[in-house]
Amino acid sequence: MLDPNQKAVVIGISGCSSSGKTTLARLLRDIFPNTFILHEDDFYKPEAEIPMKDGLTNWDCPEALNIPDMTSALEHIRATGELPATFDSKEDINSIGPCPITTDFINTIKCRVADWLQPSSPGHQILKSPQKPLKICILDGFLLYSPPPLLPATLLSQMDIKLFLLVSKAKALQRREARDGYVTLEGFWKDPPGYVDKIVWPEYVRAHEWMFEDGDVEKARLRGDVRERLGVLVNSKKEGEETKMDRDFGETLEWAVESIMRELERLVLGKEEEDGQKEGEKEREDEKEKKREKEAIALNSFAMKKKWAAGQRERNARELLIKKAEEQQQQQQK
């Protein structure tokens, strides 16, 4: 359950660079009310402090980020429901290209959420309550869920819902190379040749191999305890024995929206626990009903046996009377 004093719920969206995180975050901001975005990229250190790897600036490692500042910002957001007053986003300036899904599809999803927000539905109590409306902060970042020592547990604890987007190396490379570059504190960054192969993908593997069987992020066979360990929800989809890496973005949006609504109901309303209690009560009632049925059958069986015994005694008595009458008749004839 959510802390009752919390003013905003933080939803993390993570995955490899160019997996669709920012596109998804901006769509969700438009779909859900009272929603704003915090970008992990706004917490990069100055370029002079970014580590080097193989002669290249390594923007994709934990050491490139100011983790304490990001944690403090999340603590402020959860406590107040607002971005820090001094916060200034550079990431919002960056272009993410055309939207991969149609306006009609987005409107369909918006209608679904609008129904969930109606006064008679759970969403209204969560996000529209006049007494205590909850805000949503979407944290968009390439490095959010790795367990210690890569990331401190204090950062992980600031995220209430954790979504993770899968992407193949080929698709990540294609999308990243299509970008013009990135706005930074000092100006503008454009990937040098081979940057994805030498920096982006190896760092992604290092930070996320714990999530996959045998550490193989390409086959994407998720470990069974991913959700149990850190509560991470993954947009995986099985196709036969294989996991589909590059899902249709419409499917990803639907998955994210449904996951958020379900998790908000669980965190704020305790719906999963309540449903579990109701299910437990139903099971107990079913057991009682079965017991009553068995008792009724037993009672009926006993009553039938008793009735049969009484009938048998009557038959025996009649036979005895007949036998005695016959004996008397025989004696009289003699």
Automatic annotation (TrEMBL):
Q: What is this protein called?
A: WGS project CABT00000000 data, contig 2.3
Origin organism of this chain? Sordaria macrospora (strain ATCC MYA-333 / DSM 997 / K(L3346) / K-hell)
Q: Where is this region: Disordered?
A: 271-296
Output the InterPro entries linked to this UniProt entry. P-loop_NTPase (IPR027417)
